[in-house]
Design brief:
Elements: H1 2-29, H2 32-39, H3 43-49, H4 53-62, H5 76-91, H6 95-105, H7 117-135, H8 145-167, H9 172-187, H10 190-193, H11 202-212
Amino acid sequence: MARQERAIRTRRTIVEAAGAVFDEHGYAASTIAMVLARADVTKGALYFHFSSKESLAQAVLDEQLSLGAVPPHPCKLQEIVDMTFVFGHRLRTNSLLKGSVRLTVDQCAPPGVDHTGPFRQWSERLSAMLQAAAEQGELLPLVKPRDTADLLVGAFAGVQLMSRALNGREDLGHRISVMWAHVLPSIAVPGLLIALDSRPDRGARVLASAESGELVGA
């Protein structure tokens, strides 16, 4: 059991180091040697878990969805809003997440690395959540969950890229808030709008509430 736990910790260390390296250098310029130096592990330990740079990149990409998890909320639309803010908040400090996002939009990734996966996975998750929101009467009648999910994923990707390019994502919370200010009136029933919280610091408050075991109010 101790050996298994040690192997799990080592793998996690390597994946986190790879995320940081991919974020800082991009896929093409990153090397296994850089990851080894950042993780401070032996080459044998790395190759025990990963056979190549491609498999390392795929592992980093596969972590993305879990890093956007938020506590369930009775209002599904608020839960979707919370996911974007929590994801954005973590994106400012979490090197693994930053590396995963950079790989997602990195057109230099080889065919063996499915950098389209996160786009599809996020669209599928948000589509299901929007469908649940519709069933709870939260959405306007003409809203199509799948189309709206694709729009939100694409809009968020663009917003975070612009924020990263202009000021290292320091204003990402504000930009996400502006995005929702434009999107929510076009998808949410009017009576729900006033109750939805899309203020820039929503991500920090949701995470703090989750740590304390309380549900942050809408």
